[in-house]
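Most newcomers find our protein records easier to grasp once they have seen one. Read left to right, the backbone structure tokens trace the chain's path through space. Once this layout is familiar, the rest of the handout is easier to follow. The record below serves as our worked example for the rest of this section:


***
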Amino acid sequence: MKTWEYLTAPLLSHNTKVILDNFGLDGWELVTVIPGPNGWENPVAYMKREKQA
């Protein structure tokens, strides 16, 4: 059975691709992006990756 670990991370709107690429290199898969406390100026990414035994 797969188990998952999760991560939430704020995104800088001017550098989103680089930030997400770096998380992807660490094995994180983007699940969704939602508005942050100040709306879409500071979105928040929710990610998951398979938990290692």
